[in-house]
From TrEMBL:
This is Solute-binding protein family 5 domain-containing protein. InterPro entries: SBP_5 (IPR039424), SBP_5_dom (IPR000914). It holds the Pfam family SBP_bac_5. Residues 1-22 form the signal peptide. Residues 64-328 form the Solute-binding protein family domain. GO terms for molecular function: peptide transmembrane transporter activity. It comes from the Eukaryota. One of its GO terms (biological process) is peptide transport. Keywords: Signal.
Length: 351
């Protein structure tokens, strides 16, 4: 299956409050669907909201560093030992121990397929209060990198609730609407944090309208084609910055016309990645699976469209132009359905 990639840029807009507020309203086009990290990509969303943390994470320099964990050591090909930071607490004040982390990671590895992607099944046991042992089905040379993957958040199940270790704790949750967050009093510098409401909007345009109306203080993932109007509004500051993710396009090769590699290649070279980056007002055009600031980046390909090359491939595959100039084969027109997440305004713009 082919991947077609464009590195995206994120947009943050900030409205200047008239006076110092006790709380901040943040608008986003996505929201965690629950507080259950075993469900789908909820663990990733909870981390992005400032609620959850992992044993390891990636810092702003791109290095893997300990978050809840202090260190990791390899015992043999399939066995590692992880040492936790001493004195770490869940948001209810319960101590983070090896057994409690092992319970969380075991549940994640059992119920969430994303937590099985790198190592398969994992046996996780507590060695002592701050040390746990991981024996995996498949080997890895970089266990800290695996434990920095999005599914592996640390949490405590207690009295029917889940408690995490991030800078904010869940005060109230309304599905598909909002999270009301309070500072986690057991997290450093808690006294400097305000109360936060993370509110979901169905798309970038409705979020931009809410920002303009003063309904939110911060707005993420605004459509770039509407920024000029927002910049004209008093009290609104727009900031654009690159983030470490890619926009990808996947071919559904179960479709008869896309099962032909020549058609997929034609689509590949027909896309002008440089033009897409220009429309997004940021990012870098690439076919690489990794961004250019990593040692894994490799991309010497042409980013501009090759119309004649694409036409030749379609002709070869039997999709020739009819009298109206449409590509057809055996009386059937070549048609493609392009589906994208509406909560990512950049994807909508590229369509």
């Amino acid at each position: 299956m082919a991947a077609r990639l464009v590195l995206a840029a994120a947009l943050l807009a900030v409205a200047s409050p008239q006076s110092l507020r006790a709380s901040v309203v943040i608008g986003k086009t996505f929201l965690a669907g629950s507080t259950d990290p075993t469900a789908g990509s909820t663990a990733w969303a909870l981390t992005s909201h400032g609620i959850a943390e992992k044993l390891f994470t990636v810092n702003k320099k791109g290095n893997i560093v300990g978050q809840v964990a202090e260190s990791v050591a390899k015992i043999d090909k399939l066995t590692w030992e992880v040492t936790l930071k001493d004195g770490y607490l869940f948001s209810d004040g319960t101590a983070v121990t090896a057994q409690r982390v092992a319970n969380a990671l075991t549940e994640l590895n059992t119920k969430n397929s994303g937590a099985q992607a790198s190592l398969g099944m994992m046996g996780i046991t507590a060695v002592d209060g701050l040390t746990m042992r991981i024996v995996s089905e498949r080997a890895t040379p970089v266990m800290d990198a695996v434990l920095a993957e999005w599914p592996f958040v640390v949490y405590l199940k207690k009295d029917g609730n889940r408690f995490f270790t991030g800078p904010f704790a869940v005060k109230n949750f309304v599905k598909d609407d909002s999270f009301e967050l309070e500072p986690n009093e057991h997290y450093p510098r808690a006294e400097l944090r305000p109360w936060v409401t993370v509110k979901r909007f169905p798309d970038g345009q409705s979020l931009a309208s809410a920002l303009e109306a003063g309904e939110v203080d911060l707005a993420f993932h605004l459509p770039v084609d509407g920024l000029s109007g927002l910049r004209d509004q008093a009290g609104i500051t727009i900031k654009s910055f690159e983030v470490g993710y890619h926009y990808m396009m996947w071919h559904n090769i179960r479709k008869p016309h896309l099962s032909d590699v020549r058609v997929r290649r034609a689509l590949d070279i027909a896309l002008d990645r440089s033009e897409l980056a220009q429309e997004l007002r940021g990012g870098r055009a690439t076919r690489s699976l990794f961004p250019d600031y990593t040692p894994y980046f490799l991309d010497n390909s042409q980013q501009n469209a090759d119309k004649s090359g694409a036409e030749a491939l379609l002709d070869e595959a039997g999709w020739v132009k009819d009298a109206d100039g449409h590509r057809a084969k055996d009386g059937v027109h070549l048609a493609l359905d392009l589906v994208a997440y509406p909560q990512r305004p950049g994807l909508v713009i590229m369509q």
